[in-house]
Amino acid sequence: MRIFALAGLVLGLSAMAAAQTTAPWDYAGKRGPLEWGKLDPAYKVCSQGHEQSPIDIRGAHLNKALQPIEFHYISAPVTLENNGHTVLVHVHPGSYIVADGVRYELQQFHFHHPAEEAVKGKLSDMVVHLVHKSADGKMAVVAVRLTEDRGSPNAVLATLWEHLPTTTGATDKTTDMVNPGGLLPPDRGYWTYMGSLTTPPCTEGVRWFVFEQEMTISRDQLRAFAALFKVNSRPLQDAHGRRIEANE
Ligand SMILES: [Zn+2]
């Protein structure tokens, strides 16, 4: 009897934990961004936090003490997953950055359409978020804004776009090697500020690095993504007086 009760308790707890990590949310309607904070107690910070992302980037303070971000990205095949909210690119372990003396491992990268972070009120066509985590659990996200251009399509995007999974839950793996470094602009000037994840549970304490220079995406690439995700961006959040710094 006791064993069954304990098993029931354990099952109950794990069911609760599962519910907290999987409470459904969306980018519009009853489960849209304005409701995220009410959908699950674990999402409360989405509506109550004062360090939420994305924000409109303006009024940055130049801080010449900020070092360039060191990128140590490796080439490897990647797995793309359509998780219903974005196309998530799972990378082979081994890629990392060093920022402000801290090493952060690249975990995954993914795309938003349109871009989430605005610059002086202007949103780019898309953005790629490269999500990193340090050994002690600190998160750092590098954002590269993408703007439609007639020039030659970005080679990394071209490889990935051949494998875009079109239905929720679908995955596809590249046979070609992918180096996420191919998504980074040549000019490494960035803005940095403290923010949050832009999807539930909207966890705060995330160090953001937004590159000042945009990269380009072709019209066909943009259309192909927009056909899957018409809008998968969280609206701008109040900066609450947060300090934004620029390294150059
Ligand atoms: Zn993102």
Describe this entry's structure for a reader.
With 248 residues, this protein is an alpha+beta fold. It has a single domain (2-246), classed as Alpha carbonic anhydrase (Carbonic Anhydrase II). The protein has helices at 2-22, 36-39, 45-48, 155-161, 219-228; strands spanning 56-57, 61-62, 70-72, 79-82, 87-90, 96-99, 102-112, 118-119, 126-134, 139-148, 171-173, 190-196, 204-211, 215-217, 245-246. Strands 2, 3, 4, 5, 6, 7, 9, 10, 11, 12, 13, 14 and 15 form a 13-stranded mixed sheet that branches. Strands 1-8 form a two-stranded parallel sheet. Strand 9 and strand 10 form a beta hairpin. The longest helix has 21 residues, at 2-22. It starts with a helix and ends with a strand. Zinc ion binds next to strand 7.
Primary descriptors:
alpha+beta; 15 strands; Carbonic Anhydrase II; two-stranded parallel ribbon; 5 helices
Spell out the helices and strands N to C.
HHHEEEEEEEEEEHEEEEHE
Let me know the average pLDDT. Answer: 93
Quantity of strands, as a count: 15
What's the CATH first level? Alpha Beta
Q: What structural category do the secondary elements indicate?
A: alpha+beta
CATH architecture: Roll
**What percent of residues adopt helix (DSSP H or I)?**
10-25%
In angstroms, what is the radius of gyration?
A: 19 Å
CATH topology: Carbonic Anhydrase II
Percentage beta strand: 25-35%
Say which molecules are bound, naming each kind only once. zinc ion
Number of domains: 1
What's the CATH H-level superfamily name? Answer: Alpha carbonic anhydrase
Low-confidence stretches: 1-20
Largest sheet at a glance? 13 strands, mixed
Measured between the Cα atoms of the first and last residue, the distance is 67 Å
Give the overall silhouette.
globular
Count of helix runs: 5
